[in-house]
Amino acid sequence: MALLEVDRLSVAFTRYDGAFRQSETAVMHDLHVEADRGEIVAVIGSSGSGKSLLAHALLGILPDNAVVRGTIRFDGEALTPRRLEALRGRDIALVPQSVHYLDPLMRVGAQVRSAVHNGGDPVREQREAFARLRLPADAEKRYPHQLSGGMARRVLVSTATVSGAKLLVADEPTPGLDPAVVGEALARLRQLADEGAAVLLISHDIESALRVADRVAVFYAGTTVELASAADFAGDGSQLRHPYSRALWRALPQNGFVPIAGFQPHPAELPEGCLFAPRCGMATAECSRERPAMRELRGGKARCIHAT
Ligand SMILES: Nc1ncnc2c1ncn2[C@@H]1O[C@H](COP(=O)(O)OP(=O)(O)OP(=O)(O)O)[C@@H](O)[C@H]1O
Ligand code: NI
Question: Which parts of the sequence belong to the ABC transporter domain (predicted)?
């Protein structure tokens, strides 16, 4: 049994239109993802596909008007809000996408030290983490507003990597960092996975993520379309199962920059049937009839009736 198992996770936001009318917009549907001890699962997909929502659902920090359905199991048990309260920051840690999660009133060195739960000495762990990510020695004394965006991001990565967490959710940990620092940050995540942690690595930087990931979850319009092994992202992409995964792969600069025609649908205007069908070269009339189920295929999973 995997350490983290997310099954049929759906998220909707409620809104009041007038005094008594309440409407719900579904933004995530039947999402499926899993991560086991010792592995990095990269989560990729375009902007708005639900990657941060998943991270926030896992940490229990969705806004109050979010309605969550489906199951999240951690270490074999349902991850209830009460259980999360005890696990957050210790067994489950987040590298948030936004640097605004830093406490503006606390020196960043102290913030990182207070996150050390890996059994190490807090000061040593913090200094090692900063040195590894090439933060200057005096950075520890600064407040968040005295840091550049890139430095703040490195502090966030440091915080999560000293936590000793069994599950690390890194939501875009490396944008804007120079390649050497990106390499260090990802190597550290790899090291934590090798020591037994499960890591969800959410990233737009597919190329870098693939270098350290074992498996990849591909998100589209609020659902998982494929779970593949990282090795399937190779050559012309023909090992991949879902047409969107292949399109995403071929859109990378080194694979010819082939753009994907059309746009990801807005949550309020989702097509009937397969969410990718309107942009898919393989689509047939049957694709528009109902949402395809996730099915096992060649050691991975895909949500496409035509996938082979
Ligand atoms: N508080 C909210 N209220 C209503 N809709 C929301 C809210 N938060 C997110 N959404 C919607 O949920 C969808 C998924 O958003 P999410 O932030 O998870 O995308 P993402 O994959 O992380 O994108 P990015 O790559 O840009 O970070 C989007 O359509 C977004 O507009
Ligand atoms: Ni996001």
Answer: 6-246
